[in-house]
Each structure stands twice: as structure tokens, then as C-alpha cells.
């Protein structure tokens, strides 16, 4: 930054501050030093008597990432001044529009200006549409391109990956090599890794890892960190550890990603140990690091350690805890059954507690069957977020657990009156290059009848081994048999039954679920893992559960 100021002073002293060539060099220097240099860059730019396309492009580019509104203002000024934009203008204008989620008419303007067929502009359009979630718009641009470079393919792969079209991203990656005859770079592989992570497909992840090694692509810090995260999200944190140990250079994010991975896999003490190892290297943890460590302490019941870590945010590092950090402490205390202490903590928070914090408290109250505090938490949530379906379900569950079926029915009736819909539970597992999806209680799967019949037989067998369906969370005050049937067809049970029917080898069954696994399904998984001698990994909304030989990695502390 100092070098930029020195250059500006030198130009003034030599009388070259208005020389076009010198100004170009100065503006490029400002762009390289962004974002710190941007206010000074705008001040200098305002004194340029007749800025040309290059000058505008340089400033628009410099602001596109960190100050997109200024990029748009500069583009508007460019148009007013009659300066013609070119193919280097629009990629950064589109980037700024995407960050602000505006500019839906940009494509029409490009066509009007005759720039829509330029490859740089087309690549920018693909990224723009992808950022706005318009996969169809991006694909239209991609399909109409007469020629595509590596950026074109990478942008479309990224669009698919970032919009939850994982298999489409991987299919396009294969097409890129076969049709495009292009060798992927780090940017491409980061999008491919992201696609695999979203799918939770471990075998695909191992293939991508091997592909990177086979093609000799350098394992940069970014690529190594992405692989660590990928393996964790695919359910194999041991592979994450192997990648971590093999990376020669690690930054804060690298350490943080593995700490988070260990946390959500229930390996809390290892996560805490890694945090201390990171501090010993001299690296300073950031807010995300602390969040991961506090989650680890919460999942492992490490209350004292969690308190020490929380207090160190301010005392050791001079940082202010965020609302997420406060939420982690509420979760830490709530899971441990320290409900009154959790409520006192929330009442004395310097930050106003949001609905998520009160929701965390409600979940803890339900877990520990504290009806009085549950109702208090629900009142607070209702003030902040009255239409969240999960809150009604939690309160309904706590009424069910104490047998107060009238109050439970009232909660359900209130949901109907306020038109609050309950989010359906669904699970999926990967079978080759296909995703098998299961929705609780539905009959849409082509093998639905066969799966349900097999699941009923499994449950009957498990009863002989001591499995008793936990019916307190069933929807109505009905006979036990009907309650059990309501629970029997939860989506994760259907997924596991399908896997046992379809996969005759010893492979681990890996299920991804959109909601938190319920108590009954958790018990069911433990019994199935023992009865069939199969390992089952369930990735739910909060964490991973590894079931093996009748026990779970969470040690029933969840």
C-alpha cells in the first residue's frame, strides 16, 4: 500500500499525474492493493479529466469483489459519459451484479451492444447466472457457445456444484476431458470436490483424490483443505486426517476444517487437542475456528473445556464473541442438562439472543423433559420467529413424552390454523451414479412396497433382541400399534432397509438426512448394526452418527 502512495507522490513531483500512461500504471497499482487502496483510487480517478475504457475497467475490476456497489456506480458513470464498455468491462460488472443479486437485464444489454458472443463475456454470464441460482440460464449460455475454454467448463461445473446438482457437475467434468480435451486446473478441481462433498459420496471422493495424484496436480493449501473437508463430509474423517498430515503447509482454514470435521464426527477430545496444537504453531484462530472447537466441546460434553475456550476468545485474543459463539455455550450447557444455568447465561448475554439461541434452549428442554422451561423458550421464539415448524414439533414432542396428549393435539391444531407446515423428513444414499431418495411415510419409491415389507420384518426380528420402538414422539394419542407404524417408516429406516436389500456385500451403509435423527431411529440403527453386523453412517442436520456392533460414535450424547 505504501508503494502505491509513493508512486502517486512521485508522479505529482515529476508532473506526470495527468499523463495517460502514468495514470494507467497508477490505477493498476491501486487495483493490485485493493481493498485498502480503493478510497484513494476513487479520489484519484475523480481528477482524471477524460477517463477512457481502460481506466473505467480497472476501477470496476478493483471494486467488483469487495465493494460491488461502487462497481455498478462506475459502470453507470461510464455509460453516462459516453465511454464504450468492451468485453473486459462486463465480466466484472456481472461479478458485481451477482454479489448484489441484481442485473437481470444485463444479458439483454450485452446482446444490444453486440458483446454477447465474446468468450470472456459468456464465461462471466455463466458465473452470473450460477450465482443467482439460475442453472437453466447458465446452461443456455454454455450450450450456445461455439468455443469453450477451461474457464467456460469450470464455470459451468461450479454452477452445477453450487446449486446442488452434484452428479451433473461430475458428468460435465467427464465431458470436459472427453469432448473438450482439456486438463483441469485447481479451480476446476475445487468445484469437483465441492460437488462430491454435497453428495457425501465417499467412493467418488476417493476417485477424485486419486485423480489429483495421478495427474500430478499440485496439492496447494486450498486443494488440500478442500479434500480434508470433502472426506469429512463424506463420513471418513480418518481420511481427512491422512490428507492433513500429508500437507506440508497449512493455514488457519486448514486447521479449522479438520477441527470442524472431528467435532461433527463426535471426536471431541481429538478436536480440542488439535486446537491446542494449532495454537502452538503460532497461528491465530479466527471466529470460525472457535465455533468449531465449541461445537466439539458441546458434542462431547466437555463443559469446563468449552467454558475455557469461550473465555479465551476475549481474554487471550482480544476478540468479541459472536452470537454463534454464545449459541454454542447455550448448546453446551443445554446438552449437559444445566438448563437453569443456560437460561441465566442467555438472560445475561451482552448480545440480544436470536431465535436460534432460544430454539437451542427449547431442544435441550425437550431432551431433558423440562416442560415448564420448554414453554418459556417457546414464548420467546414466538416473539422472534412465530412460523418455524421445528419449534412446534419440539414442543409437541415434549408434551408427548409426558403423556399430555391434549396439549400435544393443541400444538398440532395451532400449526394447522397458522398454516405452518411440517418439513418432511427425507434421506438419500448413493448407489453408483444414482441417488436413491426416501421420504418419510410416502410410497413414491418404485420399490416402496418391497422396502416397507422388509422393514417390518426387520423390526419384528429386532424386537426379539430387545428393540422397543420409542413411541412418545408419534403424532397422536392413539394405540401403540398405530404409533409404532408412524415411526416405522421414517426416511432413514427406509434407506437402510433398501441398502440391506440391495447391497449384499459388506460395504458401509451411508445415509444423508435433512433433519435431526430421532431417538427411535437412533435406537433402531444401533440394533441393525449389531443384528446384521454392518456399519451404518448417518449424516443428519447436525452431525455424523457412526453405528457399529450395537453402539454409536456419539455415545448416546446428542
Automatic annotation (TrEMBL):
Family annotation (PROSITE patterns): PPR (PS51375)
One Gene Ontology term of the molecular function aspect: zinc ion binding
GO annotation terms (biological process): RNA modification
Domain annotation DYW: ranges: 466-558
Keywords noted in UniProt: Repeat
The family this protein is said to belong to: Belongs to the PPR family. PCMP-H subfamily.
Name listed for the protein in its UniProt record: DYW domain-containing protein
Amino acid at each position: 500500500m505504501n508503494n502505491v502512495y509513493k508512486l502517486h507522490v512521485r508522479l505529482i513531483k515529476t508532473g506526470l499525474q495527468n499523463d495517460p500512461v502514468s495514470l494507467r500504471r497508477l490505477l493498476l497499482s491501486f487495483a493490485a492493493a485493493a481493498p485498502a487502496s480503493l478510497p484513494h483510487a476513487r479520489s484519484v480517478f475523480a481528477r482524471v479529466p477524460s477517463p477512457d475504457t481502460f481506466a473505467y475497467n480497472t476501477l470496476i475490476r478493483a471494486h467488483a469483489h469487495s465493494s460491488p456497489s461502487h462497481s455498478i456506480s462506475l459502470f453507470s458513470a461510464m455509460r453516462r459519459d459516453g465511454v464504450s464498455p468492451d468485453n473486459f468491462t462486463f465480466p466484472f460488472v456481472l461479478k458485481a451484479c451477482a454479489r448484489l443479486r441484481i442485473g437481470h437485464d444485463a444479458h439483454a444489454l450485452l446482446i444490444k451492444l453486440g458483446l454477447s458472443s465474446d468468450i470472456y463475456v459468456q464465461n462471466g454470464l455463466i458465473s452470473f447466472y450460477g450465482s443467482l441460482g439460475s442453472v437453466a440460464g447458465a446452461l443456455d449460455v454454455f450450450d450456445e457457445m461455439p468455443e469453450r475454454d477451461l474457464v467456460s467448463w469450470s464455470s459451468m461445473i461450479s454452477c452445477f456444484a453450487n446449486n446442488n446438482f452434484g452428479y451433473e457437475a461430475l458428468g460435465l467434468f467427464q465431458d470436459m476431458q472427453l469432448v473438450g480435451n482439456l486438463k483441469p486446473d485447481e479451480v476446476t478441481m475445487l468445484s469437483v470436490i465441492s460437488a462430491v462433498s454435497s453428495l457425501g459420496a465417499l467412493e467418488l471422493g476417493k476417485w477424485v483424490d486419486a485423480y489429483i495424484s495421478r495427474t500430478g496436480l499440485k496439492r496447494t493449501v486450498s486443494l488440500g483443505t478442500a479434500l480434508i473437508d470433502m472426506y469429512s463430509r463424506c463420513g471418513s474423517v480418518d481420511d481427512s486426517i491422512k490428507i492433513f498430515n500429508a500437507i506440508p503447509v497449512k493455514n488457519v482454514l486448514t486447521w479449522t476444517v479438520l477441527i470442524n470435521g472431528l467435532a461433527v464426527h463426535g471426536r471431541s477430545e481429538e478436536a480440542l487437542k488439535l486446537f491446542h496444537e494449532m495454537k502452538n504453531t503460532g497461528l491465530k484462530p479466527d471466529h470460525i475456528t472457535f465455533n468449531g472447537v465449541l461445537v466439539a466441546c458441546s458434542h462431547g460434553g466437555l463443559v469446563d473445556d468449552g467454558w475455557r475456550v469461550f473465555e479465551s476468545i476475549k481474554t487471550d485474543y482480544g476478540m468479541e464473541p459472536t452470537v454463534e459463539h454464545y449459541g454454542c455455550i447455550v448448546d453446551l450447557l443445554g446438552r449437559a442438562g444445566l438448563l437453569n444455568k443456560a437460561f441465566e447465561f442467555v438472560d445475561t448475554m451482552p448480545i440480544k439472543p436470536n431465535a436460534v439461541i432460544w430454539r437451542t434452549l427449547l431442544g435441550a428442554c425437550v431432551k431433558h423433559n423440562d416442560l415448564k422451561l420448554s414453554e418459556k423458550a417457546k414464548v420467546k421464539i414466538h416473539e422472534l420467529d412465530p412460523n418455524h415448524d421445528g419449534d412446534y414439533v419440539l414442543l409437541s414432542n415434549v408434551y408427548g413424552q409426558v403423556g399430555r396428549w391434549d396439549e400435544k393435539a393443541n400444538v398440532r391444531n395451532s400449526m394447522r390454523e397458522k398454516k405452518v407446515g411440517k418439513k418432511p423428513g427425507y434421506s438419500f444414499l448413493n448407489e453408483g451414479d444414482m441417488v436413491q431418495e426416501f421420504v418419510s411415510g410416502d410410497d413414491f419409491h418404485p420399490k416402496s412396497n418391497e422396502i416397507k415389507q422388509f422393514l417390518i420384518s426387520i423390526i419384528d426380528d429386532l424386537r426379539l433382541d430387545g428393540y422397543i420402538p420409542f413411541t412418545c414422539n408419534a403424532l397422536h394419542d392413539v394405540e401403540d400399534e398405530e404409533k409404532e407404524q408412524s415411526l416405522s417408516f421414517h426416511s432413514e429406516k427406509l434407506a437402510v432397509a433398501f441398502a440391506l436389500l440391495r447391497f449384499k456385500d459388506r460395504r458401509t451403509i451411508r445415509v444423508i438426512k435433512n433433519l435431526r435423527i430421532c431417538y427411535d431411529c437412533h435406537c433402531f440403527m444401533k440394533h441393525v448394526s449389531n443384528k446384521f453386523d454392518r456399519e451404518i453412517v448417518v449424516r443428519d442436520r447436525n452431525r455424523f452418527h457412526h453405528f457399529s456392533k450395537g453402539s454409536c460414535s456419539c455415545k448416546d450424547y446428542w
